[in-house]
Specification:
Blueprint (H helix, E strand, L loop, with lengths): L3 E5 L2 H5 L1 E3 L5 H12 L9 H11 L3 H13 L19 H9 L3 H14 L12 H19 L3 H29 L5 E4 L2 E5 L4 E4 L5 E6 L7 E2 L8 E5 L22 H9 L4 E2 H8 L3 H13 L3 E6 L2 E6 L1 H8 L13
Parallel strand pairs: 1-5, 2-6, 6-8
Antiparallel strand pairs: 1-4, 3-4, 7-8, 9-11, 10-11
Helix pairs in contact: 2-7, 4-7, 5-7, 8-12, 9-11, 10-11
Amino acid sequence: MSAVLRIHFTPQDLTRLHLASGPDPLWELVCTLHRLQTTQGRWAYADWHQGARATLVGTPLGAAVRRLLVPLLPRARYLPDFLTPDESADGLDRGLAAVVDTPPDRVARELSLLRGSSGVPAWAARLVERPAREELAKVLRAYYDAVVAPHHDRIHAELTGERALRAHEVLATGVDGLLSGLSPAMRWCPPVLHVDYVEDRDLHLDGRGLRLVPTYFCWQSPVSMADPQLRPVLIYPLRYKRQPAPVRPADASLAALLGRTRAAALRGIASGATTSELARGLGVSPATATHHATVLRDSGLTTSHRVGNTVLHTLTPLGAALLRRPVPTAPVSPGTP
């Protein structure tokens, strides 16, 4: 029988369920390190993996990653919690500052747990000293900038789509529906969420709520903090498998997407929109909205998922990048779609 993390909710916890508003940079960083340490799911990140290896192999950064980061963040049963602080939700700067500011006694305690789980090199003992943590933070930042940051558009677009899906799920089916559909690795049996995990554990939320963090580079297995006294968090993989970046058909031209209505449709889908919401926003019929959504999807700018009885449209990384990039405007004649 597989191990299970049992997360126990009280009625108060159900009202304090929070879905992260954006990527958590340190959790994404940790998950990329785990992707480099295993072949599992490599097909889903093939383009990223190829680029990451080209960036790291034979470089000083690659040597620093092997010597410093992999031993501290192994793909193992235990990870030091101080390296994934709650402050990372507010950005990489805040997260790294929290790593540096970690009290020495906590660093020593968590390194001792890591030593008993998978072992740590002798140099790790110096992390109780602030200058050593400052040097570690520099390596973490350099790794993030080189390996994670170049994929920001894709990560942000995927997580925006995930957030839109979950928001519509809550509206359609309530919190029960949300918790029931998070992942095949989770089963909601009120008032307990059962999560396939690396060990058998019980986590009692006790009114503190739960922060849900969808993570692009998390593959199949959800992750939580080891210390039950810390703010409860659950890192989980996106529902849909990552696919290679869509290729536009040869006869599709972006010029066809620059019409006034279709550009408005793309903007309307930026935060996720159902076909009926898109139609209302554009002031067109559902059939016309479906047509615009189909053109955008076939051009690789959006993707569509069925949620209950509705179809939800979200941006692809290409669509998100197009919206952020200024597009020269051309005169629009009457009747332009």
